[in-house]
């Protein structure tokens, strides 16, 4: 919608950009952004405007304000990964996906907050502080929350965004941008999407280039797409997917961007409900919503069957071994010598490394590095790493079998519950939380499959709940078509944000929410 | 991202060394922390390298005489592709180390030989032959002094019949000559140590070219666990041959072993054989021709331009030209005497216009590089052979008369 508005001249890119920038200022308390690139964004908006005036926009994305998670390299703009290790680091190049967006004329508003080095499921463990879920400030949530006693800070019961792409999700959810890039290694795009009520797409591994995405787990990372509706996600996907010679893990096949059809007849569709995803700890609300969704499909004529992915319960442990091993390897480059933080110690190279890494990394990162190195030791390699790889193969095969039996798409919950209040979340440590929260999302990363979170309803507390669709390798079109149909049926309510605007009055949220 | 040219070079080298090329090879990360390794790991091929089980034949002269040559073979264990690290320059006076990262990440080809050699001479001959092969293939210019070819020698000693002893690794060898010295020194050192009742440590030693000995290196790593892990960013390297090449794959996208095989240039051993056959020279001559950069070409050019038989020409090339070049540390390319000039001179000799002694004198003049032709020098110095019988008689008579007068 907003793209059409830009083309028709109803609004200019500069106005759009300015509105977003001022909204960012008004919502600063959300802590969604680490860096706001005001000057460059306005410049990009200005250039976009010139193109529109000439009648030559670069495409649908020209002039559209977007945000990028702070673990993507952006030339000339600080890239920190929410870590002391990279504070002040200004990247000399753009990640391929960032470059693609800029080449299409998108306006880069800034870098969003995350868990340090994308490790976490709350977006609470970065050095710039936690991200607050915009829904904490929505009328929907406030109406349902138990009034607190006067002495307590009104602000203390805000809920988390989920993670690790919490900043991106919050940015999209609070209207400060029209789309955002996140990353997804174990669910890091889908989890916050579910908690913030936005669409979170994890593409098939190998479809979108990882060049310039600071790696966590090379064999599972993918850039993630966060938008307010499924059509927008398809548009972003179209502009990002495709082979990149700089990333040897992208597939060579030509990618053709697509538009999503409006499904009316779903009788040929087969939806699988994996029974193992009825995980311990799954809230009754989500279970009910999941059930309702599957009924929705059934009543509309689709085939809905229960399927089994028997190795699901091993995936968390397997993920931990492989993830920490790769993390230990990928973090080895941060030694303080070439870039980033360097400790003042100058006794010896080794002591400088040790001090730099102790000072630069938080506990979560250090913990994972230590575990990972343990698993990679010669005496442990066979028993842990190789075994985990074998289990990974079994998990991937589970999916192959199920899809091979005629199922088109799987329907599962995305999270175990709605967003938890921050104060409660931090009572458990990162590792425990991750182990709990990743359970529904990370098998898709293990198998490299595409998956998308679609906001499906509000919980009793007035917070968003999302459901996840998992598709077959490189079948994003089918996956998103089903997601789009579902989205239409569900009619997820728009957030009613109650925020004092930076320049004038209470915020009107009725402006166009999507750009397609 | 994998460099195609590196893969091709490795395949060429593997084929030239009679290796089996692995159609599927894998990449791994070898982790250790060091200032010249910016990523904290080196990408290498630990599990499955690109080529295995080859052999390298080289020749040795017995008794230092060029007349008797023996052929020996050393087995090639494997060839693997890996990344180079940066370069560390240690400034001991200021207790600091400077790190040059320019070469970090550049592709390297590591050729691993089995311990089939038994002395410095053999090692040097094998490496020399490898250098020639690499230069012929174009895989590398293999100049040791410039670090294009780096050689680490692993040396151990044992009594005949007993298992191999503990080995040490000797690094910092900058030329083929030093290689022979280093190996021989280390063999001696180990023998002396063992005869004293000591033990050999499995350590890394550096060759000190000034002192001609090996010294223990700073303990870089100790017994390290490199925590090998498959490199997740590089898919397995798949190579094809004519049989396995799928029809729909773009020729530009793949490396075809057979295609490379067909285009291999003549290897040194083949070249030498051809020289012997074509020109009737001795095998040891062919070695010298190939060992000196540009000498073969020079020789062949002279042969083309003269009527003198190659068997005779070779003497002039090897005994006169080469020794002069060596005396003055010149390369063939820098020779003040061109093949044209030499051919010219040899023609005079062949036509019997001058004697061979005279020819050598002319050559000595030609070295000065004053631009005179052989004929000019001959005329100037009156070096012509006199054919006229009468004239000779007169000269002889004059000499005899002269003698009588004393």
From TrEMBL, chain A:
Provide a GO biological process annotation.
glutaminyl-tRNAGln biosynthesis via transamidation
Q: Which SUPFAM superfamilies match?
A: Amidase signature (AS) enzymes
GO MF terms held by the record: ATP binding; glutaminyl-tRNA synthase (glutamine-hydrolyzing) activity; transferase activity
Outline the extent of the Amidase domain. Answer: 20-480
Q: Which Pfam families match?
A: Amidase
InterPro entries the record matches = Amidase, Amidase_dom, AS_sf, GatA
Instruction: Cite the entry's keywords alphabetically.
Output: ATP-binding, Ligase, Mitochondrion, Nucleotide-binding, Protein biosynthesis, Transferase
One GO cellular component term noted in the UniProt record for this chain: mitochondrion
List the HAMAP family.
Answer: GatA (MF_00120)
What's the protein name? GATA amidotransferase
- Native organism is Sula dactylatra
- The gene that this protein is the product of is Qrsl1
Automatic annotation (TrEMBL), chain B:
Report the leader peptide range.
Answer: none
Q: Which keywords does UniProt give here?
A: ATP-binding, Ligase, Nucleotide-binding, Protein biosynthesis, Transferase
- Please give the catalytic activity noted in the UniProt record: L-glutamyl-tRNA(Gln) + L-glutamine + ATP + H2O = L-glutaminyl-tRNA(Gln) + L-glutamate + ADP + phosphate + H(+)
Which InterPro entries does the entry mention?
Asn/Gln-tRNA_amidoTrfase_suB/E, Asn/Gln-tRNA_Trfase_suB/E_cat, Asn/Gln_amidotransferase, Asn/Gln_tRNA_amidoTrase-B-like, GatB, Gln_synth/guanido_kin_cat_dom
Query: In this protein, which residues make up the domain named Asn/Gln amidotransferase?
Result: 297-406
Q: Which GO terms describe its biological process?
A: glutaminyl-tRNAGln biosynthesis via transamidation; mitochondrial translation
GO cellular component labels? glutamyl-tRNA(Gln) amidotransferase complex; mitochondrion
Query: What family, per the record?
Result: Belongs to the GatB/GatE family. GatB subfamily.
**What protein name applies here?**
GATB amidotransferase
């Amino acid at each position: 919608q907003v793209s059409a508005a830009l083309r028709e001249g109803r609004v200019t890119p500069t106005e759009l950009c300015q509105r977003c920038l001022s909204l960012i200022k008004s919502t600063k308390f959300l802590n969604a952004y680490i860096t706001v690139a005001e000057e460059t964004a306005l410049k990009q908006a200005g250039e976009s405007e010139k193109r529109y005036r000439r009648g030559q926009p670069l495409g649908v994305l020209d002039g559209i304000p977007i945000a990028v998670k702070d673990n993507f390299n952006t030339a000339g703009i600080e890239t920190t990964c929410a870590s002391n290790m990279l504070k002040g680091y200004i990247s000399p190049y753009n990640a391929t996906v960032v470059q693609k967006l800029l080449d299409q004329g998108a306006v880069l508003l800034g870098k969003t907050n995350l868990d340090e080095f994308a490790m976490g499921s709350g977006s609470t463990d970065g050095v710039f502080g936690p991200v607050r879920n915009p829904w904490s400030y929505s009328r929907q949530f406030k109406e349902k929350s138990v009034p607190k006693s006067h002495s307590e800070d009104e602000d203390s019961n805000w809920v988390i965004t989920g993670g690790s792409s919490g900043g991106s999700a919050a940015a999209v959810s609070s209207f400060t941008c029209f789309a955002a890039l996140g990353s997804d290694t174990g669910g890091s795009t889908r989890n916050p999407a579910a908690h913030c009520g936005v669409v979170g797409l994890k593409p098939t591994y190998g479809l979108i280039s990882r060049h310039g995405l600071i790696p966590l787990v090379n064999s599972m990372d993918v850039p993630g797409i966060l938008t307010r509706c499924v059509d927008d996600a398809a548009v972003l996907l179209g502009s990002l997917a495709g082979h990149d010679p700089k990333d040897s893990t992208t597939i060579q096949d030509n990618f053709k961007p697509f538009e999503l059809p409006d499904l009316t007849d779903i009788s040929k569709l087969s939806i699988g409900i994996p029974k193992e995803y009825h995980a311990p700890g799954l809230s009754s609300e989500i279970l009910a919503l999941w059930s309702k969704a599957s009924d929705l499909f059934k009543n509309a004529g689709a085939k809905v069957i229960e399927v089994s992915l028997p190795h699901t319960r091993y995936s968390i442990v397997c993920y931990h071994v492989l993830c920490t091993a790769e993390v230990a390897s990928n973090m080895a480059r941060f030694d303080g010598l070439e870039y980033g933080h360097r400790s003042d110690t100058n006794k010896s190279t080794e002591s400088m490394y040790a001090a730099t890494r102790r000072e630069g990394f938080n506990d979560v990162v250090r913990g994972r590095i230590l575990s990972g190195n343990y698993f990679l030791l010669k005496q442990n390699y066979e028993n842990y790493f190789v075994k985990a790889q074998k289990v990974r193969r079994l998990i991937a095969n589970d999916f192959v079998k199920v899809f091979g039996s005629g199922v088109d798409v799987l329907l599962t919950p995305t999270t175990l519950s709605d967003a938890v209040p921050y104060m409660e979340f931090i009572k458990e440590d990162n590792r425990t939380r991750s182990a709990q929260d990743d359970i529904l999302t990370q098998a898709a990363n293990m198998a490299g499959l595409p998956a998308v979170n679609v906001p499906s309803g509000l919980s009793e507390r007035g917070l968003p709940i999302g459901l996840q669709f998992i598709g077959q390798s490189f079948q994003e079109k089918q996956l998103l078509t089903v997601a789009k149909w579902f989205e239409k049926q569900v009619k997820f309510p728009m957030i009613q944000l109650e925020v004092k605007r930076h320049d004038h009055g209470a915020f009107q949220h009725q402006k166009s929410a999507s750009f397609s | 991202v994998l460099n195609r040219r590196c893969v091709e070079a490795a395949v060429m080298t593997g084929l030239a060394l009679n290796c089996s090329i692995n159609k599927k090879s894998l990449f791994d990360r070898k982790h250790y922390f060091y200032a010249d390794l910016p990523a904290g790991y080196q990408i290498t091929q630990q599990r499955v390298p690109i080529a295995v089980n080859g052999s390298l034949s080289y020749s040795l002269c017995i008794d230092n005489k060029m007349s008797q040559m023996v052929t020996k073979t050393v087995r090639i264990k494997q060839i693997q592709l890996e990344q180079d690290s940066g370069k560390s320059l240690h400034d001991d006076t200021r207790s600091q180390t400077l790190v040059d990262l320019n070469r970090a990440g550049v592709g390297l080809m590591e050729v691993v030989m089995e311990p089939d050699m038994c002395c410095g001479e053999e090692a040097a001959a094998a490496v020399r032959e490898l250098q020639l092969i690499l230069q012929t293939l174009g895989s590398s210019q293999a100049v040791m002094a410039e670090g294009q070819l780096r050689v680490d020698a692993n040396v151990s000693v044992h009594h005949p019949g007993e298992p191999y002893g503990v080995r040490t690794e000797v690094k910092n060898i900058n030329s083929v000559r030093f290689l022979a010295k280093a190996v021989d020194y280390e063999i001696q050192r180990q023998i002396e140590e063992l005869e004293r009742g000591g033990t050999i440590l499995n350590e890394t030693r550096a060759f000190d070219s000034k002192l001609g000995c090996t010294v223990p290196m700073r303990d870089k790593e100790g017994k390290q666990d490199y925590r090998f892990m498959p490199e997740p960013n590089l898919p397995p390297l798949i190579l094809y041959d004519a049989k396995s090449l799928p029809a729909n794959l773009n020729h530009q996208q793949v490396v075809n072993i057979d295609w490379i095989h067909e285009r291999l240039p003549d290897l040194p051993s083949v070249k030498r054989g051809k020289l012997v056959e074509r020109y009737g020279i001795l095998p040891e001559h062919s070695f010298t021709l190939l060992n000196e950069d540009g000498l073969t070409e020079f020789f062949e050019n002279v042969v083309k331009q003269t009527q003198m038989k190659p068997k005779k020409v070779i003497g002039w090339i090897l005994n006169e030209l080469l020794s002069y070049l060596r005396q003055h540390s010149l390369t063939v390319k820098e020779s003040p005497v061109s093949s044209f000039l030499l051919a010219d001179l040899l023609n005079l000799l062949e036509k019997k216009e001058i004697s061979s002694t005279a020819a050598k004198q002319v050559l000595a003049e030609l070295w000065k590089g004053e631009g005179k032709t052989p004929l000019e020098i001959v005329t100037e110095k009156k070096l012509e052979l006199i054919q006229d019988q009468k004239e000779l008689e007169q000269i002889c008579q004059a000499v005899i008369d002269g003698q009588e007068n004393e």
